[in-house]
What does this fold into?
Amino acid sequence: MKILIPTKLDKAAAGALTAAGYEVVQNDSDPIDVQAAANPDAVGLIVRSEKVTPAVIDSMPTLKCIIRAGAGYDNIDYVYARSKGIDVMNTPGANSNAVAEEVIAMILAAYRYVVPADVTTRAGEWNKKKYMGRELTRKTVGILGLGNIGRLLVKRLQGFECTVLGYDHFLSKQRALNIGATPAEINEIFANADIISLHVPGGPATKNLVNERLINMMKDGAMIINCSRYGVVDEDAIRAARAAGKNIIYCTDVHPKDTAAMQPSADVADVMLPHLGANTREANKLAAMRAASQMEAYFTSGDTSCVINAEKPTDLSAAHLQLAAMLGKLCYRAGGGKPIRKIECTFYNNLRSYRKWFTPWILQGAVPGAEQGLMPAAAEQSLREHGIVFKAREPMDDKLYDDALTLDIFMEENGEQKKTSVRGMVVDGEPVVSRINNFNHLYAGLSGNTIFLRYADRPGVIATVSQIISQANINIENMVAPRDAASGDSLAVIKTDKPINNEQLDLIARAIAAKQAFALSL
It folds into this structure.
């Protein structure tokens, strides 16, 4: 069987696959489309950043497996690959140490003016006084995100005797301490750290996470390092802070696109690299060896645990998977958005047979910023890395809820775990929530714009809420308001034709003395 490697990947992959009996063609000179056309009999393809388009896929009619030697796989049309029965895999985690070491390199380069000092000295200048530097030793370093990279960075900083402050929304305080970081909130890190390194996911949840407010809290002369995703740092806020006289050091390795261009960070970055985080020989070799190992396991034992585009069972509806994600998001918000310590779920009736397929959807719904599109095994691993205990329970024999799903999320609040529970099902093809904690018989649709209000039950509340909503020119499409006899509270679940903003929600909450008020748009 032939494996095509049309990229500059460490030769270890080709060596391992050749030793296992595969015919390997590796060429980093010719374009991938040319090589694909020249090797139509390839059954496996290993790439790095090369674009695997439908045309490339169609050039190899015997292709069965594509592996991205790295974490991201946006360069592969994995949806089209699925339509052709081709499995796509990645090798996450192979570059973690390389990125952690890059952070250390950027700190030292910025503190010791390595780049400008080299340039000016080569030009015949002698700017020893101008480039008075600083030492990393015994500095306070704040790390946002204690995943694989963040944890390795903590270890690398230990040799510099640094005080490490760590923030991770999903990591327990004790686990952070075990890693070697003192747990701290984001505000505390920005107010006290000499250096702040970002290792958080991209996307809407972290867009401009480092904003004007946080930047203004920083010490004069403090440093921000962004090796996570472009957009996490509001670079305009850094420009404004500098214009106001604040000294901020900024280092970045991430850009809107990995391509030759004038990058928007050029005028604001003290050290700027072309996304070199994973670009080490060691990381390249590790990714190569993992790709080779996964390819061999795929063909010899049918191991698909790393497949990212697997086809779900044909008789499992997409609506039930969407239900799991929606319930996860609802349960997280209903519980106050605190750090998650444990997730337990119960699948009823026919859903019991498909339990593992729900794990990625529960992850991406309940955990803000979690990676999407994972396979079940990778989703379970991601939950473990977030410090979340995950358990799929068997239903009690005396409880029959048709094809329903119960989701319990345990969040840490004041050192204790507080449980929030929701149950839902699919009715007429639409996900609905049937219970939130002790409020039963909801049967409220989860799609669209919904307001959730908990309050002490009494006459006139719904009229007050309706009046405020109507004054905002928002129409109520549906409403349920069950009462919990034990607490004497009611829960109003109100579906509207337009989303309600925070100001309007606060007005309603104050008007009815709400014990809890939040809105969701799903």
